[in-house]
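Structure first, sequence second, as always.
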């Protein structure tokens, strides 16, 4: 888990990395995040009342209006948990809850401000996409847009692998990092974490390399569907598997260019992220967009006039 204190333009003033078990349930996890954050405020001599806004990203579907996580595949106990309400006990500022890949897309957009149609694809333990369309983060009607990890790609449930979401045959059930580790375990290859998988590929472990290449082809096909649907100017790959760009990028490029129409690919660039983790920057920018939203500022001014 990475927590940070940022200024209103997204400059990271301080940050911390800690191991965190998302399956520990919302109260324990939010307690740990809250403590990491208040410690950083104290280090900088800041009070809770100095905080303009809080943003938190989670690896699951977030209902945009309420900031509640809805039926997350891996976040046991988080369904409908009121995250903004939890922070409201200590902070009076706005609290934004965002899907992790959406936050990464928002951060990546800062590195490519002239690209108004950008798709960010995360290939890590899970698979997902965040979309900037027309210069704005596109969440869909409820917040579920871009969840390409759970697009079904097999015709028959009977033979398809079970996904973490409970369905069979999703993109992630073949190409998620967790699915690769599962398949390697079945083959007797002793690789049990994402870090170990990346190391195994880098050191030339053939089964690991083959599974990562196959995963890249599967994700590439799903992204080609997205390219056909929304016609982005740029697709950026991030996440731990995308760090293996010499293995992953060539495969996804080949699949996307082959499976998308010429008009959609003529000017399309496909690349890897310019940052280790654009998510923190993305969250800071989303807070600033919310806090300085002209309509919200007008409301605050009207409220102050009413009090005067
Ligand atoms: Zn699924």
């Amino acid at each position: 888990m990475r927590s940070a204190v940022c200024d209103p333009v997204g400059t990271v003033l301080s940050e911390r990395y800690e191991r965190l078990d998302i399956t520990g349930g919302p109260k324990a996890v939010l307690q740990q995040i809250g403590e990491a954050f208040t410690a950083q405020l104290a280090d900088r001599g800041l009070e809770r009342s100095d905080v303009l806004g809080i943003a938190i990203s989670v690896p699951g579907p977030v209902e945009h209006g309420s900031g509640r996580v809805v039926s997350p595949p891996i976040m046991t106990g988080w369904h409908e948990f009121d995250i903004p309400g939890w922070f409201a006990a200590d902070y009076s500022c706005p609290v934004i809850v965002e899907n992790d890949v959406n936050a990464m897309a928002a951060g990546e957009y800062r590195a490519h401000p002239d690209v108004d149609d950008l798709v960010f694809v995360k290939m890590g333990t899970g698979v997902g996409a965040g979309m900037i369309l027309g210069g704005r983060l596109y969440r869909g009607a409820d917040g579920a847009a871009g969840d390409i990890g759970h697009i079904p790609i097999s015709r028959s449930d009977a033979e398809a692998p079970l996904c973490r979401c409970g369905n069979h045959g999703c993109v992630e059930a073949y190409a998620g990092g967790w699915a690769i580790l599962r398949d390697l375990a079945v083959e007797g290859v002793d690789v049990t974490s994402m870090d170990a998988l990346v190391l195994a590929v880098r050191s030339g472990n053939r089964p690991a390399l083959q599974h990562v290449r196959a995963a890249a082809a599967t994700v590439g096909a799903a992204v080609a569907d997205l390219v056909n649907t929304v016609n982005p100017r740029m697709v950026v790959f991030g996440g731990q598997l995308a760090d293996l760009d010499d293995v992953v990028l060539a495969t996804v490029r080949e699949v996307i260019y082959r499976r998308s129409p010429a008009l959609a690919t003529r000017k399309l660039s496909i690349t890897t992220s310019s940052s280790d983790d654009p998510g923190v920057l993305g969250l800071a920018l989303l807070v600033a967009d919310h806090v300085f939203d002209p309509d919200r500022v007008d409301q605050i001014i009207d409220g102050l006039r009413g009090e005067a």
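Margin note: Residues 224 and 258 are 9 Å apart (CA to CA).
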